[in-house]
């Protein structure tokens, strides 16, 4: 790509993150939903990411969004090494009304600096977390320093909720900027056939990355405390392309000879609705702080109560709606007790919980908030139309 083609477009907002489509994660889904939601409203939107999958082009238009990808030379844990990423993000950002940087990101501080006079919005999803290792001990301080540099250059900082933000290592920097709490976009799905249901027994599910921080070993241990032979545990999510590596092998070993436990792999969009429709409870057993937990909230919006770790951020949807139970992080016995309780919820309680979740969370309110913020910042920069 030439310097001229990188600089020539004029965008209302440039969104910068390490992984974009076809990668799937909660962070990626937030970026995609906001980008495509803004494009549907006529905004000119660019996304700059690394080209983690070589089968996808360096530049393409996806649902009205201009996507730029830079080559990846190597991977370190969950991160990528892409020398062209920050320079390209900076060039595209300088021709934009605002730039949104999704944190944590190794290159965040450099991107914020290279954006020049363009107002920076940092969306802080979480502090970087890696399993303990000598490499992690080196990576985490470097990423933290870069995140701090980006926050200092921000015109605004967006967090999913204050409960999570207040427990961040970077909160002292966030509170010095304009701080907004915008709940991530959660999709309202229509009821679908319960194609994943196998028996009349309780069906418990998880949907997300099969990664160490999700604490799925605690979920397997808790489920095995349930003695009902008709019960099922369904762990859904791609385990073949997880940044930093999947733990599916260790989970299969932990499940042992328990034939009631299923690993579904990646689910297509129609299958997600069918998966949620098959559940009596959703479990979010993460051991590292999550800023929200989109999958648990989307399950709640389909009438499925959630059992979640009582930790900053991920406890908010359950606390705000009362639709489910919280348990002490890492306590498999308490998780098993909470699951026994919520799978017995009545149809009336499930309908009430679904209404409460849908009233509080949704895609449009999130896109509205970001659209207003970006337009305000773009107007303050006076970028010509």
Provide keyphrases for this structure.
385 residues, alpha/beta, Rossmann fold, 15 helices, 38% helix, 19% strand, globular, Glycosyltransferase_grp1, transferase, Glyco_trans_1
Offer a concise description of the structure.
The chain has 385 residues and is an alpha/beta fold. It is built from 15 helices and 16 strands. The strands form 3 sheets. The protein has an 8-stranded mixed sheet with strand order 3-4-2-1-7-8-9-10. A 6-stranded parallel sheet has the order 13-12-11-14-15-16, with helices on both faces. It has a two-stranded antiparallel sheet with strand order 5-6.
Question: What secondary-structure arrangement, pairings included, does this model have?
Answer:
Blueprint: H1 3-7, E1 13-16, H2 26-40, E2 45-51, E3 59-62, E4 65-71, E5 74-76, E6 79-81, H3 85-94, E7 99-103, H4 108-114, E8 120-124, H5 134-152, E9 156-159, H6 162-165, H7 171-174, E10 179-181, E11 203-207, H8 216-223, E12 232-236, H9 248-255, E13 261-265, H10 269-277, E14 281-284, H11 294-300, E15 306-309, H12 316-321, E16 324-327, H13 332-342, H14 347-360, H15 363-381
Parallel strand pairs: 1-2, 1-7, 2-4, 7-8, 8-9, 9-10, 11-12, 11-14, 12-13, 14-15, 15-16
Antiparallel strand pairs: 3-4, 5-6
Helix pairs in contact: 2-15, 3-4, 4-5, 8-9, 8-13
